[in-house]
Amino acid sequence: MIKRTFWMLLGLMSLLLGLIGVFLPLLPTTPFVLLSAYCFSKSSHKLHSWLINHKLFGSLIIDWEKYGVIRYKTKCIATISMIVLVSYPLIFLPIVIWAKVMVIISIILVMIFIWSRPSLPVMKE
């Protein structure tokens, strides 16, 4: 019972961070949603099914769980949104240089993760 509660709470927190990440470029949505799916698979069949059948996140989770891929379109949307949403504050707002460097490093690391994943499923013979 305690394990299920732990996985449920972790899944809910992760999903919340993923939803916030839709609007904040430094919080990547994809890893948090994938973590939520994993946590819900350990705690709640109902929530896991809901997430898999979700209009926005379902295909992302299925692609990851079955094939370990992030589709090309998802990669492009993530990259463009991170660049657009981070560029303005970094260029036009008076932010200390070390904070700008940390943001740039974070964005680069997230992009490396996203673009290092395969884009299409590899069908085994």
UniProtKB/TrEMBL annotation:
Organism per entry: Pseudoalteromonas denitrificans DSM 6059
Residue intervals passing through the bilayer: 7-27, 76-91, 97-115
Topology with respect to the bilayer: Multi-pass membrane protein
Origin: domain of life: Bacteria
Protein name: Inner membrane protein
Keyword Transmembrane helix set for record: yes
Keyword Transmembrane belongs to the record: yes
CC per GO annotation: plasma membrane
Coiled coil stretches, renumbered: none
InterPro entries: DUF454 (IPR007401)
Cellular localization per UniProt: Cell inner membrane
Keywords, alphabetical: Cell inner membrane, Cell membrane, Membrane, Transmembrane, Transmembrane helix
